[in-house]
Amino acid sequence: MTAQRTASRASWIIPGLALLALAVAVVGLTVGAFPVTLDGFFRALQNFWSGDLPQTAEQRVLFGIRGPRVLAGLIVGASLAGAGVVYQGLFRNPLVSPDVLGVSAGAGLGAVIGIFLSLPVFAIQMLAFGGGLATVGLVYLIAVAVRGRDPTLVLVLGGVVVGALAGAAISLLKILADPYDQLPAISFWLLGSLASVRGGDLWNVTPAVAIGLVPLVLLRWQINVLSLGDEEAKSLGVESGRLRVIVIAAATLITASVVAISGVIGWVGLVIPHIARMLVGPNFERLLPAAMLMGASYLVLVDTLARSLGRIEVPLGILTAVVGAPFFLWLLWRGRHGWS
Question: pTM to 2 decimals?
């Protein structure tokens, strides 16, 4: 009966979350240092669809600055939350997030190397993307090389070790960097921000995110089975080893892609999956879209706060920690009887 109630509740919660994401996107487009009225917003949309785009101040703000930024917030938030759902279900651990395999640390190291070498923005993003994938590849090689141990435990511990090494390399490059030019850029990127995202960045990231989502959607019922454990999955005819590689690769591709344009933004992939699980239950078919919609709304709201609180924009990594840490403590207290 409980499962039926959860499924029934999810049938209206997910559409509600989609409407919430749309409403939050409108808020993100209209709120800021240069406010845009709803009348001006709808008039700009009407001109956009009709092909008439006079260069008014409102339309330059909407389509040139805030539009790409809000879209980036939706994509980055949804991707981090979706990857968090995958990692937590795969490792059956509520403390797992997209950082568990060193993805963020590897992407951060790649970006820091690009900034240290004074490379163009596109090259920095590509190095961040390659760094995230390379880190996970190294972690997986460690897991393959270590025999006779729990593979999931080896993956997690390998991710912790490789992430720590990447963090040490980042610290070394920060010491060697130019304190007047490179060091501020490195520090700001590592704290996470959508301020520099442009339309071209979205065209580069969206295909990679879509490619990573395809296997997660197609294999959603097998991922449900995999969350039960390797023995149960094997008894139901699911090859857990190969499936785990595919799922980890897909989630890593999604995470590395968005970190390449946004920098390191923590807590989204850790807290949002918990809230989504409380709303729609552990079924991956419902949990993935719910978490992605919530993550999209959450990051756009946080980004709107970041650029509206004061004259100086607050990095997203700071705000997500300020909001996420107390809420996560509340979740731990509320869920002290266990997690499933």
Answer: 0.89
